[in-house]
# Entry
Amino acid sequence: MRLEASDLTCIRGGREIFAGLSFSVDPGEILLVTGRNGAGKSSLLRMIAGLVRIAAGRLVLRGGDPERTVAEQAHYLGHWDALKPSLSVAENLAFWVHYLGGVGPVGQALETVGLDALADLPAAYLSAGQRRRLSIARLVAIQRPVWLLDEPTSALDRQAQEDLARLMQRHLANGGLILAATHGPIGVDGARQLRLGSAA
Amino acid sequence: MSPLVALFVRDVRLAVRVGGGGGIGVLFFLIVVTLTPFAIGPDLALLGRIGPAILWLGALLASLLTLDRLLAADHEDGSLDLILMAETPLELAVAAKALAHWMTTGLPLVAATPLLGLFLNLDAAASAAVALTLLAGTPALTFIGLIGAALSVALRRGGLLLAVLVLPLTVPVLIFGVAASNAAIVGPLPFGTPFTILCALTLTSLVVGTFAAAAALRHGME
# Structure
């Protein structure tokens, strides 16, 4: 399945963030979205996630499920972690697995990100890096072909960054697509770059 | 577990756990009703006459107390983003959240009413009548309040705006709730007349509130 965007325009708060943006992402490919702060990286990811209105242009996931929107076939890892502090680590993940239609056992996903020992800890006690890893566990437990990652390596230590790179490579090897907004290297080779805010 | 059941259970859990605001409504209700006899003085006849109105006012304000966090909390931590990206329709999701809110806020108010009726010189039958009208009417308060919560979702301290938006819409519920209670206590109107209108208001608000709130959320997501 291929993600095709043609002539995308984004208007937020009355300001035009970007216009006429066209690109495509093939299966097994990762696209790095780079640019200065305010160039529209987060807006682009949120637009694909269906959270920001597409002012103009088209977005299509070719070969995807025709009954579902692009957003319903995508994971969005944003700046907030969607965790409830009074629920435990396992309860938080189990809720999203049930709500977003995952079938993966929660224990396995927690083990993959190294949080299985903390499964019963209330999420309020997690560090920033642990919270980010719990969000990543959501991507592992629920199968969706498109990953929209907004600065995924922020708050992660070196080990966790390598683990994430490994997870991303596995996702790509299974035919998934990744769009990642990032300021620095992300640990996956051969990534194409989409630079926002440079051309007119 | 189906997605909606999971959402309902999660919201109930959150309300019941420490800091979730589950008991605040009942506590506020208790305070309002306890203070009223002190404010009005030892006029038992007067207390008995306005008792249903005080209980209804207390229930209305108590319901509104935690409504502003209902959707704003999910908006702030990014949960609303993910809820919008799920296959479950947003309308059903907000309805499940509102139902969880009613069960953890409205239903305890109904349960506390017979005890609180004692403070207001209401006998058992009168308290039971008020409790029944609250049972029928508090869902309407939650679902109408849902509209205000959705409109003020992105505001940090949206509580006041929510109250301003929602209170006028809850006035019919208040009128018919008190009318039904008084009809049961003193007549002359048969209880059924205002009570069925109250039930109709609730049923209408279940639908209108759900769809209006979902539309407001979508619009607010830009």
